[in-house]
Amino acid sequence: MSKIYSVSVTRDGKWWMISVPELDALTQARRIDDVPTMARELIALETGVALDEVEIEERIELASGEDLSTRVRAIKDRRVQLLEDEAHVKSETQRFAKELADAHIPVRDIGSLLGVTFQRASQLVNG
């Protein structure tokens, strides 16, 4: 099992400053998307550990000291949950549309019941 390094990330002008306090090491990245790679490369260089074995836990902070990591993680987790919920609703809607069609409910009425256009209701029934 590889060691997980804590990485502190702050904004300084046009750069994201990346600090690894445990190693007393610092690097920077222009874009937030580059932070994990830059942090892992810094740790690998400082410790001699293979890059693919370096794991990090980021803490992104504003100048005010507010930790953005928790809020970012919560939003990402919520997005995943919404995608799962959306897939479930789509599946349930299609199943219900087919049940209604099997009960000889007209496609236009199925659309009205489900709150979709009759064209979408037709896709659901025939999909």
Radius of gyration: 25 Å
Q: Uncertain segments of ≥5 residues (pLDDT<50)?
A: none
| Topology, number of strands | 4
Q: What is the succession of H and E elements?
A: EEEHEHHH
The portion of residues assigned to helices is: 40-55%
Percentage beta strand: 15-25%
User: Which strand order do you get reading across the main beta sheet?
Assistant: 3-2-1-4
Count of separate DSSP helical elements: 4
Query: Structural class from helices and strands?
Result: alpha+beta
Please outline the major beta sheet.
4 strands, mixed
Intertermini distance: 47 Å
Basic shape: elongated
What is the average of the pLDDT values? 94
Explain this structure to me?
With 127 residues, the protein is an alpha+beta fold. It is 51% helix and 21% strand. The chain has four helices and four strands. The protein has helices at 35-47, 68-102, 107-114, 118-126, and strands at 4-12, 15-20, 25-29, 55-61. A four-stranded mixed β-sheet has the order 3-2-1-4. A hairpin with a 4-residue loop joins strand 2 and strand 3 (25-29). Helix 2 runs antiparallel to helix 3, helix 2 packs across helix 4 (118-126) and helix 3 packs across helix 4 (118-126). The longest helix is centred in the C-terminal third of the chain and has 35 residues, at 68-102. The mean pLDDT is 94.
